Amino acid sequence: MRKKIIAGNWKMYKTAPEALELVAALKKEIGGVTAVDVVVCPPFVHLGAVVDNCRASSIAVGAQNIYWEDAGAFTGEVSGPMLASVGVKYVIIGHSERRQFFGETNETVNKRTRAALKNGLKPIVCVGENLAERESGRTFDVIRDHVTGSLAGLTKEDMLRIVLAYEPVWAIGTGKTASAAQAQEVHKFIREILLKMFDKATADATRIQYGGSVKPENIAELVAQPDIDGALVGGASLKADSFAALVRNSMN
Fold first, then answer.
1. Which of 249, 164, 156 lies closest to 199, judged by CA?
2. Between 3.40.190.10, 3.40.50.2000, 3.20.20.70, 3.40.50.720, what CATH number should domain 5-250 receive?
3. Which of these is catalytic: 46, 97, 167, 187?
4. Which of 65, 170, 206, 252 is the most buried if burial means most Cβ atoms within 10 Å?
5. Which one of 46, 95, 146, 187 is the catalytic residue?
6. What is the pTM of this model?
7. 146 catalytic per annotation
8. Is 104 among the residues known to form the active site?
């Protein structure tokens, strides 16, 4: 049985005081939850403080990106050893916004994923189609390309530490949500790709989150689907009450 995982991507939101205020409220609301894995992913500048403030709780902390070299003259980048040294456990890789605005490709996603694994971090690898690709009937082609390219050359053992996140780009921050049936269709397809790339045990064991305007009101229906193992949450993770409600509703 795959354990559900709910990860909150704070994106480029929250000042330092706001970050600590949010974490304090989350600890009070869901700091003891163990039925699902709960992860918060603040901006880089808050990681150390958020890790410190989550130590006495079940909430894990993730980063929003990672560079593929461990050290070097790469101004503005953050490496795996740096993230691991402050207690980060997860890292989001290849988010659609990184692909759209910062030139991420399957190749760089693959390199970042390998760097995360090398440094003991658990990658949350994102895949997903945009609106034009969905409307032109290319969803499955795009997903196949993202999954096979992003995971190229990885082993079955690597996959046991990786979470995949399916993000229909047209549903991120737009208020539009893929229906539970639409999301399940793609999640099932991703699992079929993993079966071909690895084996049935690996495909069955890999957790696949849904990301795209997830709210407390729709999470239960989403995670009730056989191949949806949680959510990568954006806007609803920025308020303690909505994120806590979303986590609780994912357990029902």
1. 156
2. 3.20.20.70
3. 167
4. 206
5. 95
6. 0.97
7. no
8. no
